[in-house]
Design brief:
232 residues, alpha+beta, six-stranded antiparallel beta sheet
C-alpha cells in the first residue's frame, strides 16, 4: 500500500501555534497551569511543593515533587516521542554545570559560534568591551550599506548578555542604533567581539543558598532538573 501525504504539519503557516496548543492542552490536562508572566512556562502547585515546566523547542522540568515529575514524564511519553536527556547540561545555547557550591552558567560554545559568524578577519583583542566615557550619536560615522549583519550580531549579543552581565551596558548602547547603524557603531560592536575573544571562558556563578536572584533560569537549576526533547 502507498500512502500519499496530503498535508505536512511543518508546511503550514500555523504549525507552530497548532503544535503549541496541542502541547499546552496535554500539560494542562496533567495538572499544570500556564504562567501569567510567560506563555512558555507552566506551573503546578501541590502540598508536596511546586513544579515548573518550561517549553521552548526543548523542555525543562524541575521542582520539589519528584513523584509528580515522574507522572508528567510518563504522561508525555504516552503522547509524544520523547527522549529524556537527564540532568540539565545544555539548553538554548546555555551551558550548565552543577557543583556542591552552586551552578556555573556559561555560553562558551555560543560565543565561539558567534565569533565564527562575525568573521573578524584579524586576531586583535581588547581588555574592555567599551571605552570609558563613550557617547555615541545616531549621526556618528557613515551609514552602513547593509545593516543586516550589524543587526544580526547585536541580536546575538543581547541573548548572550543573559549570562554575561559584563557586556550588558555596551550591548544596550549598541542596540539603540539597529535601525540605522553607522561605521562608528559597527567599530564599537567589533570591540565587544574582540573583548569576548579574550574572555570567552568567563562563567556566571549562582550560589545554592542565594535567595536574591528571582530569575526563572535560576529556579530551573535545581538538583531535580530534567530535560526532555519532544519530537513529532
Amino acid at each position: 500500500m502507498v500512502c500519499r501525504l496530503r498535508r505536512s504539519l511543518y508546511g503550514l503557516k500555523q504549525a507552530p501555534r497548532a503544535w503549541f496548543e496541542r502541547f499546552a492542552s496535554i500539560v494542562t490536562a496533567a495538572g499544570f497551569s500556564p504562567s501569567a508572566h510567560d506563555p512558555a512556562l507552566f506551573v503546578h502547585t501541590s502540598p508536596r511543593g511546586r513544579t515548573l515546566l518550561l517549553y521552548v523547542d526543548d523542555m525543562i522540568i524541575t521542582g520539589d515533587d519528584p513523584e509528580y515529575i515522574a507522572f508528567v514524564k510518563a504522561r508525555l511519553h504516552d503522547q509524544f516521542l520523547m527522549t529524556d536527556l537527564g540532568p540539565l547540561r545544555y539548553f538554548l545555547g546555555i551551558e550548565v554545570s552543577s557543583t556542591s557550591d552552586g551552578f556555573y552558567i556559561s555560553q562558551e560554545k555560543y560565543i565561539q559560534d558567534l565569533l565564527a559568524r562575525a568573521a573578524l578577519g584579524d586576531e586583535r583583542t581588547v581588555e574592555t568591551p567599551m571605552e570609558l566615557n563613550v557617547k555615541l550619536q545616531p549621526t556618528d560615522g557613515d551609514p552602513l550599506s547593509d545593516p543586516t549583519h550589524y543587526r544580526h550580531l547585536v541580536g546575538s549579543l543581547v541573548y548572550l548578555a543573559v549570562t554575561r552581565p559584563d557586556i550588558s551596558y555596551p550591548v544596550h548602547i549598541l542596540s539603540q542604533f539597529v535601525s540605522a547603524p553607522t561605521t562608528i557603531h559597527y567599530s564599537h560592536l567589533l570591540r565587544v567581539l574582540r573583548y569576548l575573544r579574550v574572555q570567552v571562558l568567563l562563567v556566571l556563578h549562582v550560589i545554592r543558598s542565594s535567595m536574591s536572584l528571582p530569575s526563572i533560569l535560576v529556579l530551573m537549576l535545581s538538583i531535580h532538573v530534567l530535560r526532555c526533547r519532544l519530537r513529532l
